Please model this.
Amino acid sequence: MQAGLAMQSIAMLGSQEQKEQWLPRMARVEALGAFALTEPEHGSDSVSLETTARRDGEEWVLDGRKKWIGNGSIADVVVVWARDTGDGQVKGFLVEPPTPGWTAEKMTGKGSLRAVWQAEITLDGVRVPEANRLPGAGSFKDTARVLAGTRNAVAWGALGHATAAYDIAITYAGERTQFGRPLASFQIVQERLVRMLAEVCSMQLYCLRLARLIEQERLTDTIAAIAKMNNTRRAREVLAEARDLLGGNGILLDFHVMRHMADIEALHTYEGTETIQTLIVGRDITGIGAFA
Ligand SMILES: Cc1cc2nc3c(=O)[nH]c(=O)nc-3n(C[C@H](O)[C@H](O)[C@H](O)COP(=O)(O)OP(=O)(O)OC[C@H]3O[C@@H](n4cnc5c(N)ncnc54)[C@H](O)[C@@H]3O)c2cc1C
Model:
Protein backbone atom coordinates (compact mmCIF):
# COMPACT_ATOMS: atom_id res chain seq x y z
CA MET A 1 0.00 0.00 0.00
CA GLN A 2 2.62 2.50 1.07
CA ALA A 3 5.61 2.13 -1.23
CA GLY A 4 3.69 0.41 -4.01
CA LEU A 5 0.15 1.59 -4.62
CA ALA A 6 0.07 4.97 -2.85
CA MET A 7 3.60 6.28 -3.49
CA GLN A 8 3.71 4.93 -7.03
CA SER A 9 0.41 6.64 -7.90
CA ILE A 10 1.86 9.97 -6.75
CA ALA A 11 5.29 9.33 -8.31
CA MET A 12 3.85 8.27 -11.68
CA LEU A 13 0.83 10.57 -11.96
CA GLY A 14 1.29 13.41 -9.45
CA SER A 15 2.36 17.05 -9.96
CA GLN A 16 5.78 18.25 -8.82
CA GLU A 17 4.15 19.91 -5.79
CA GLN A 18 2.29 16.71 -4.85
CA LYS A 19 5.49 14.67 -5.14
CA GLU A 20 7.42 17.13 -2.97
CA GLN A 21 4.61 17.33 -0.41
CA TRP A 22 4.14 13.58 0.04
CA LEU A 23 6.90 11.33 -1.26
CA PRO A 24 9.80 12.22 1.09
CA ARG A 25 7.55 11.98 4.17
CA MET A 26 5.98 8.74 2.95
CA ALA A 27 9.41 7.26 2.20
CA ARG A 28 10.37 7.97 5.83
CA VAL A 29 6.96 6.57 6.95
CA GLU A 30 6.19 9.90 8.61
CA ALA A 31 3.02 9.93 6.51
CA LEU A 32 0.89 6.86 5.68
CA GLY A 33 -0.76 6.36 2.30
CA ALA A 34 -3.63 4.28 0.96
CA PHE A 35 -5.06 3.45 -2.47
CA ALA A 36 -8.84 3.36 -2.83
CA LEU A 37 -9.99 1.73 -6.05
CA THR A 38 -12.15 -1.29 -5.12
CA GLU A 39 -15.84 -0.75 -4.28
CA PRO A 40 -18.39 -3.06 -2.64
CA GLU A 41 -19.96 -3.74 -6.05
CA HIS A 42 -16.82 -3.48 -8.21
CA GLY A 43 -13.74 -5.64 -7.55
CA SER A 44 -12.49 -7.42 -10.66
CA ASP A 45 -14.47 -4.97 -12.79
CA SER A 46 -13.09 -1.93 -10.98
CA VAL A 47 -13.04 -0.27 -14.40
CA SER A 48 -16.82 0.14 -13.85
CA LEU A 49 -16.38 2.01 -10.54
CA GLU A 50 -19.31 4.18 -9.46
CA THR A 51 -17.70 6.70 -7.10
CA THR A 52 -18.20 10.11 -8.68
CA ALA A 53 -16.16 13.32 -8.83
CA ARG A 54 -18.07 16.50 -9.67
CA ARG A 55 -16.17 19.70 -10.46
CA ASP A 56 -17.40 22.68 -8.47
CA GLY A 57 -15.29 25.78 -9.21
CA GLU A 58 -11.77 25.18 -7.91
CA GLU A 59 -12.90 22.09 -5.99
CA TRP A 60 -14.10 18.55 -6.65
CA VAL A 61 -16.95 16.86 -4.76
CA LEU A 62 -16.52 13.10 -4.25
CA ASP A 63 -19.38 10.68 -3.51
CA GLY A 64 -19.30 6.89 -3.27
CA ARG A 65 -18.09 3.85 -1.36
CA LYS A 66 -14.82 1.92 -1.26
CA LYS A 67 -14.00 -1.48 0.22
CA TRP A 68 -10.87 -3.43 1.24
CA ILE A 69 -8.71 -0.30 1.43
CA GLY A 70 -5.43 -1.15 3.20
CA ASN A 71 -4.44 1.54 5.75
CA GLY A 72 -7.71 3.29 4.82
CA SER A 73 -8.67 3.99 8.42
CA ILE A 74 -5.27 5.38 9.45
CA ALA A 75 -3.80 6.97 6.29
CA ASP A 76 -2.76 10.63 6.06
CA VAL A 77 -3.37 10.62 2.31
CA VAL A 78 -5.63 8.34 0.28
CA VAL A 79 -5.46 8.08 -3.50
CA VAL A 80 -9.17 7.89 -4.36
CA TRP A 81 -10.25 6.82 -7.84
CA ALA A 82 -13.53 8.36 -9.00
CA ARG A 83 -15.41 8.94 -12.24
CA ASP A 84 -15.57 12.53 -13.46
CA THR A 85 -19.27 13.32 -14.00
CA GLY A 86 -18.15 15.74 -16.74
CA ASP A 87 -16.24 13.54 -19.20
CA GLY A 88 -16.99 10.09 -17.68
CA GLN A 89 -13.27 9.29 -17.20
CA VAL A 90 -11.71 7.75 -14.08
CA LYS A 91 -9.44 10.23 -12.26
CA GLY A 92 -7.30 10.13 -9.13
CA PHE A 93 -7.64 12.47 -6.14
CA LEU A 94 -5.54 12.90 -3.01
CA VAL A 95 -7.89 12.95 -0.03
CA GLU A 96 -6.42 13.97 3.33
CA PRO A 97 -8.50 12.53 6.19
CA PRO A 98 -10.04 13.51 8.47
CA THR A 99 -12.22 15.70 6.29
CA PRO A 100 -15.99 16.38 6.31
CA GLY A 101 -18.02 13.62 4.59
CA TRP A 102 -15.25 11.01 4.97
CA THR A 103 -15.92 7.86 7.05
CA ALA A 104 -13.51 4.92 7.23
CA GLU A 105 -14.38 1.82 9.21
CA LYS A 106 -11.92 -0.96 9.96
CA MET A 107 -12.99 -4.32 8.52
CA THR A 108 -13.03 -7.19 11.02
CA GLY A 109 -12.86 -10.97 10.77
CA LYS A 110 -10.01 -11.11 8.22
CA GLY A 111 -8.14 -14.44 8.34
CA SER A 112 -5.32 -13.43 5.97
CA LEU A 113 -2.73 -10.64 6.18
CA ARG A 114 -3.92 -9.84 9.67
CA ALA A 115 -1.02 -7.42 10.16
CA VAL A 116 -2.74 -4.92 7.84
CA TRP A 117 -6.04 -3.18 8.50
CA GLN A 118 -8.47 -2.90 5.59
CA ALA A 119 -11.23 -0.28 5.65
CA GLU A 120 -14.66 0.31 4.20
CA ILE A 121 -14.91 3.94 3.24
CA THR A 122 -17.87 6.20 2.57
CA LEU A 123 -17.44 9.49 0.73
CA ASP A 124 -20.41 11.76 1.20
CA GLY A 125 -19.79 15.10 -0.49
CA VAL A 126 -16.04 15.07 0.31
CA ARG A 127 -14.44 18.25 -1.07
CA VAL A 128 -10.89 18.28 -2.43
CA PRO A 129 -9.15 21.21 -4.13
CA GLU A 130 -8.20 20.95 -7.82
CA ALA A 131 -4.58 21.02 -6.61
CA ASN A 132 -5.22 17.53 -5.11
CA ARG A 133 -6.21 15.94 -8.43
CA LEU A 134 -3.45 13.78 -9.93
CA PRO A 135 -2.75 15.59 -13.22
CA GLY A 136 -1.28 12.48 -14.86
CA ALA A 137 -4.44 10.40 -14.29
CA GLY A 138 -6.70 11.05 -17.27
CA SER A 139 -8.45 7.69 -17.57
CA PHE A 140 -8.55 4.16 -16.12
CA LYS A 141 -5.57 3.31 -18.36
CA ASP A 142 -3.42 5.39 -16.00
CA THR A 143 -4.78 3.51 -12.97
CA ALA A 144 -3.90 0.28 -14.77
CA ARG A 145 -0.33 1.53 -15.32
CA VAL A 146 0.11 1.90 -11.56
CA LEU A 147 -1.30 -1.60 -11.00
CA ALA A 148 1.03 -3.15 -13.59
CA GLY A 149 3.97 -1.78 -11.59
CA THR A 150 2.70 -2.99 -8.24
CA ARG A 151 1.85 -6.50 -9.50
CA ASN A 152 5.62 -6.86 -9.65
CA ALA A 153 5.70 -6.46 -5.86
CA VAL A 154 2.98 -9.09 -5.46
CA ALA A 155 5.03 -11.55 -7.55
CA TRP A 156 7.99 -10.90 -5.24
CA GLY A 157 5.77 -11.28 -2.19
CA ALA A 158 4.58 -14.68 -3.40
CA LEU A 159 8.20 -15.71 -3.92
CA GLY A 160 8.89 -14.74 -0.30
CA HIS A 161 6.10 -16.95 1.00
CA ALA A 162 7.22 -19.90 -1.17
CA THR A 163 10.86 -19.51 -0.13
CA ALA A 164 9.82 -19.54 3.53
CA ALA A 165 7.77 -22.69 2.94
CA TYR A 166 10.68 -24.48 1.27
CA ASP A 167 13.08 -23.39 4.00
CA ILE A 168 10.75 -24.56 6.78
CA ALA A 169 10.10 -27.89 5.01
CA ILE A 170 13.73 -28.79 4.34
CA THR A 171 14.74 -27.87 7.89
CA TYR A 172 11.89 -29.93 9.33
CA ALA A 173 12.64 -32.91 7.07
CA GLY A 174 16.22 -32.93 8.37
CA GLU A 175 15.13 -32.88 12.02
CA ARG A 176 12.01 -35.05 12.14
CA THR A 177 12.63 -38.78 12.52
CA GLN A 178 10.11 -41.49 11.53
CA PHE A 179 10.72 -45.23 11.06
CA GLY A 180 14.14 -44.61 12.70
CA ARG A 181 15.37 -42.21 9.99
CA PRO A 182 15.04 -38.48 9.25
CA LEU A 183 12.24 -37.68 6.80
CA ALA A 184 14.88 -36.18 4.46
CA SER A 185 16.39 -39.65 3.94
CA PHE A 186 13.26 -40.99 2.20
CA GLN A 187 13.35 -40.81 -1.61
CA ILE A 188 9.76 -39.57 -1.87
CA VAL A 189 10.47 -36.74 0.56
CA GLN A 190 13.57 -35.71 -1.39
CA GLU A 191 11.59 -35.71 -4.61
CA ARG A 192 8.98 -33.43 -3.06
CA LEU A 193 11.62 -31.04 -1.70
CA VAL A 194 13.34 -30.88 -5.09
CA ARG A 195 10.04 -30.10 -6.82
CA MET A 196 9.41 -27.31 -4.34
CA LEU A 197 12.89 -25.94 -4.99
CA ALA A 198 12.34 -26.08 -8.76
CA GLU A 199 9.16 -24.01 -8.36
CA VAL A 200 10.94 -21.50 -6.15
CA CYS A 201 13.73 -21.17 -8.74
CA SER A 202 11.23 -20.58 -11.56
CA MET A 203 9.52 -17.91 -9.46
CA GLN A 204 12.90 -16.27 -8.84
CA LEU A 205 13.51 -16.12 -12.58
CA TYR A 206 10.17 -14.35 -13.13
CA CYS A 207 11.11 -11.83 -10.44
CA LEU A 208 14.59 -11.29 -11.86
CA ARG A 209 13.11 -10.64 -15.30
CA LEU A 210 10.55 -8.22 -13.85
CA ALA A 211 13.31 -6.25 -12.12
CA ARG A 212 15.36 -6.02 -15.33
CA LEU A 213 12.32 -4.89 -17.37
CA ILE A 214 11.46 -2.25 -14.76
CA GLU A 215 15.06 -0.98 -14.88
CA GLN A 216 14.75 -0.66 -18.65
CA GLU A 217 11.22 0.86 -18.34
CA ARG A 218 9.91 -2.00 -20.51
CA LEU A 219 7.49 -3.75 -18.10
CA THR A 220 4.13 -4.40 -19.82
CA ASP A 221 0.70 -5.31 -18.37
CA THR A 222 1.01 -8.77 -19.89
CA ILE A 223 4.38 -9.59 -18.32
CA ALA A 224 3.30 -8.19 -14.93
CA ALA A 225 0.09 -10.23 -15.12
CA ILE A 226 1.72 -13.54 -16.10
CA ALA A 227 4.34 -13.13 -13.37
CA LYS A 228 1.76 -12.36 -10.69
CA MET A 229 -0.47 -15.23 -11.85
CA ASN A 230 2.37 -17.75 -12.00
CA ASN A 231 3.98 -16.81 -8.71
CA THR A 232 0.88 -16.71 -6.53
CA ARG A 233 -0.34 -20.01 -8.00
CA ARG A 234 3.06 -21.70 -7.54
CA ALA A 235 3.42 -20.31 -4.02
CA ARG A 236 0.10 -21.86 -3.05
CA GLU A 237 1.31 -25.23 -4.37
CA VAL A 238 4.66 -25.03 -2.58
CA LEU A 239 2.92 -24.04 0.66
CA ALA A 240 0.49 -26.95 0.38
CA GLU A 241 3.46 -29.35 -0.02
CA ALA A 242 5.22 -27.84 2.99
CA ARG A 243 2.10 -28.05 5.11
CA ASP A 244 1.75 -31.74 4.32
CA LEU A 245 5.45 -32.46 4.90
CA LEU A 246 5.15 -31.07 8.42
CA GLY A 247 2.33 -33.48 9.23
CA GLY A 248 0.16 -32.27 12.10
CA ASN A 249 2.70 -29.59 12.99
CA GLY A 250 1.93 -28.06 9.59
CA ILE A 251 -1.30 -26.63 10.93
CA LEU A 252 0.25 -25.15 14.08
CA LEU A 253 0.89 -21.41 13.92
CA ASP A 254 4.24 -21.93 15.71
CA PHE A 255 5.60 -23.60 12.59
CA HIS A 256 4.53 -20.63 10.40
CA VAL A 257 3.47 -22.56 7.26
CA MET A 258 -0.18 -22.06 8.13
CA ARG A 259 0.33 -18.31 8.50
CA HIS A 260 2.02 -18.14 5.08
CA MET A 261 -0.82 -20.24 3.64
CA ALA A 262 -3.38 -17.77 4.98
CA ASP A 263 -1.43 -14.75 3.74
CA ILE A 264 -0.86 -16.05 0.20
CA GLU A 265 -4.64 -16.14 -0.24
CA ALA A 266 -4.78 -12.33 -0.06
CA LEU A 267 -1.92 -11.95 -2.56
CA HIS A 268 -3.63 -14.42 -4.88
CA THR A 269 -6.71 -12.17 -4.91
CA TYR A 270 -5.62 -8.56 -4.60
CA GLU A 271 -4.40 -6.36 -7.43
CA GLY A 272 -6.42 -8.63 -9.73
CA THR A 273 -7.31 -12.27 -9.10
CA GLU A 274 -5.54 -15.14 -10.85
CA THR A 275 -8.44 -15.28 -13.32
CA ILE A 276 -8.19 -11.59 -14.14
CA GLN A 277 -4.42 -11.89 -14.72
CA THR A 278 -5.13 -14.87 -16.96
CA LEU A 279 -7.66 -12.85 -18.96
CA ILE A 280 -5.17 -9.97 -19.36
CA VAL A 281 -2.58 -12.36 -20.81
CA GLY A 282 -5.22 -14.24 -22.82
CA ARG A 283 -6.36 -10.99 -24.46
CA ASP A 284 -2.80 -10.20 -25.45
CA ILE A 285 -1.93 -13.59 -26.96
CA THR A 286 -5.24 -14.08 -28.81
CA GLY A 287 -6.25 -10.49 -29.52
CA ILE A 288 -9.68 -11.30 -28.03
CA GLY A 289 -10.89 -9.80 -24.72
CA ALA A 290 -12.79 -12.51 -22.78
CA PHE A 291 -13.62 -10.48 -19.64
CA ALA A 292 -17.35 -10.13 -20.32
C1 LIG B 1 -6.38 -8.42 1.78
C2 LIG B 1 -6.86 -7.55 0.66
C3 LIG B 1 -6.32 -6.27 0.51
C4 LIG B 1 -6.81 -5.41 -0.48
N1 LIG B 1 -6.32 -4.14 -0.57
C5 LIG B 1 -6.89 -3.26 -1.45
C6 LIG B 1 -6.49 -1.89 -1.46
O1 LIG B 1 -5.63 -1.44 -0.68
N2 LIG B 1 -7.09 -1.05 -2.34
C7 LIG B 1 -8.04 -1.48 -3.22
O2 LIG B 1 -8.54 -0.67 -4.01
N3 LIG B 1 -8.44 -2.79 -3.23
C8 LIG B 1 -7.89 -3.68 -2.37
N4 LIG B 1 -8.29 -5.02 -2.35
C9 LIG B 1 -9.36 -5.45 -3.26
C10 LIG B 1 -8.90 -6.44 -4.32
O3 LIG B 1 -8.19 -5.79 -5.33
C11 LIG B 1 -10.16 -7.19 -4.81
O4 LIG B 1 -10.55 -8.05 -3.75
C12 LIG B 1 -9.90 -7.98 -6.07
O5 LIG B 1 -9.71 -7.14 -7.18
C13 LIG B 1 -11.07 -8.95 -6.38
O6 LIG B 1 -12.28 -8.31 -6.29
P1 LIG B 1 -13.46 -8.96 -5.43
O7 LIG B 1 -12.92 -9.32 -4.09
O8 LIG B 1 -14.61 -8.01 -5.47
O9 LIG B 1 -13.84 -10.31 -6.16
P2 LIG B 1 -14.84 -10.49 -7.45
O10 LIG B 1 -14.46 -9.50 -8.50
O11 LIG B 1 -16.24 -10.48 -6.98
O12 LIG B 1 -14.40 -11.93 -7.91
C14 LIG B 1 -14.93 -13.14 -7.35
C15 LIG B 1 -14.47 -14.32 -8.21
O13 LIG B 1 -15.00 -14.18 -9.54
C16 LIG B 1 -13.95 -14.27 -10.50
N5 LIG B 1 -14.26 -13.43 -11.68
C17 LIG B 1 -14.53 -12.10 -11.71
N6 LIG B 1 -14.72 -11.69 -12.97
C18 LIG B 1 -14.55 -12.77 -13.77
C19 LIG B 1 -14.59 -12.99 -15.18
N7 LIG B 1 -14.82 -12.01 -16.05
N8 LIG B 1 -14.38 -14.26 -15.63
C20 LIG B 1 -14.13 -15.28 -14.78
N9 LIG B 1 -14.05 -15.12 -13.43
C21 LIG B 1 -14.26 -13.90 -12.93
C22 LIG B 1 -12.71 -13.77 -9.76
O14 LIG B 1 -11.51 -14.23 -10.38
C23 LIG B 1 -12.94 -14.36 -8.37
O15 LIG B 1 -12.51 -15.71 -8.36
C24 LIG B 1 -7.80 -5.89 -1.37
C25 LIG B 1 -8.31 -7.19 -1.22
C26 LIG B 1 -7.85 -8.01 -0.22
C27 LIG B 1 -8.45 -9.38 -0.10
Q: What stands out?
A: The chain has seven helices and nine strands. The domain at 2-137 is CATH 2.40.110.10 (Butyryl-CoA Dehydrogenase, subunit A; domain 2). Strands lie at 33-36, 52-56, 59-70, 77-84, 90-95, 102-106, 118-129, 177-178, 181-182. The radius of gyration is 21 Å.
